[in-house]
Amino acid sequence: MFKKILFATSATEASDHAARVAFNMARNYQAHLSIFHVLGVPTRGFSQVVRDVKTKEEVVLDDDYVAWVEEEVKTHYTNQLETADDYDIKVAVGFPHREILREARQSRPDLIVLGGSTGDPEESVYKKGMVGSTLQRVAKAAPCPILVVNRPAASFWGGMSNIVFGTDFSKSSDAAFDFACKLAKTLDCEMHIFHALDISTMHMGRMLNQDEIESRIRESLRRIRGRYVAKIKDEMQDYSFDVWEGIPYVEVVKYAREKHADLIVMAHHTSKTSEADNRLGSNIEQVIVRAGCPVISVNK
After folding, report:
1. How far apart are CA 35 and CA 9, in angstroms?
2. 58-60 and 49-52 beta bridge pairing
3. How far apart are CA 80 and CA 105, in angstroms?
4. Superfamily (CATH) of domain 4-149
5. CATH code for the structural domain at 162-294
6. Which of 259, 241, 263, 254 is nearest to 290 (CA)?
7. Strands 111-115, 263-267: parallel, antiparallel or unpaired by DSSP?
8. Model pTM score
9. Is the pLDDT of residue 271 over 70?
């Protein structure tokens, strides 16, 4: 299913959890792993003076410095590379999200793997409560699904048995569902289809009574049966579906924890997200920050 994996890394501890998943996936799928690092941003236009993202120092960019950075990346992943068969290391200069997207367009990977934060520990997502701007921009325009590993995961993509697919019934969610189904069949694991009925904002402050909530839950269950279960009931036996009410991202994280999920699959865009919005939809953003397992964002 995955023949080419692009692992975008800061070559720091912030990317180590994502690195472990990326290397394990490449080994399990016998895929080519491209380790991609953006070393810095030019200080002015096309200047040869670059501010290194790791040292924060201004350096003069030349072939020797690029070779040194490549060696630094290789040294950082020495242990993982000892068991890697098919990989390459690429270094670029520029704004990280632009260079990652440029590399993705050129190499056409089946999956991009990112860490939840590529900044300093003082700027981590745990303190900001949101994912980094690089992830936001890459997720919006990526030509393939993105796997985000924001926290240490018990499975690290090894022995996967449970996938949670979160839907809001948008067209983007349909694309995420197709991807989740393909993944579940390939890995022979159970899929849990989940919808969180948002009762926090949809009624402009009016509290729903329990009869209204239960009515909307029944309607959502009917939509899941017609929209998703009808497609897989003859092809997949290990599946379940549920609807809970509450704050969507909280319920998705709670549901994934209850199901011992190894992976969460969601659409990047939701039915409420404007095309002009450069940030991830707030629900998937918060799921990435809070989930105890990797999250895949599918945007098309």
Report:
1. 7
2. antiparallel
3. 26
4. HUPs (3.40.50.620)
5. 3.40.50.620
6. 254
7. unpaired
8. 0.83
9. no
* Alpha-helical segments (H) within 7-62: 16-29
Does residue 132 come out as left (phi exceeding 0), alpha (psi in the -120 to 50 range) or beta?
Answer: beta
The CA distance from 275 to 139, in Å, is 13
Q: How confident is the model at residue 273 (pLDDT cuts 50, 70, 90)?
A: very low
The model's pLDDT over 176-220, given as tens digits with 9 standing for 90+, comes to 999 999 999 988 889 999 999 988 765 556 777 889 899 999 999
Give the model confidence (pLDDT) of 10-22 as tens digits.
Answer: 888 888 889 999 9
Q: Which two tokens stand for residue 221?
A: 């269950």
Within the chain, which residue ranges are assigned CATH 3.40.50.620? Answer: 4-149, 162-294
> What is the 3 state secondary structure string of 265-276?
EEECCCCCCCCC
Q: pLDDT of 117-131, one tens digit each?
A: 544 444 443 334 334
Where helices occur in the chain by DSSP H, the ranges are 16-29, 63-76, 78-81, 96-107, 125-128, 133-141, 171-187, 210-224, 230-232, 248-258, 282-290
CA atoms of 141 and 179, how far apart (whole Å): 17
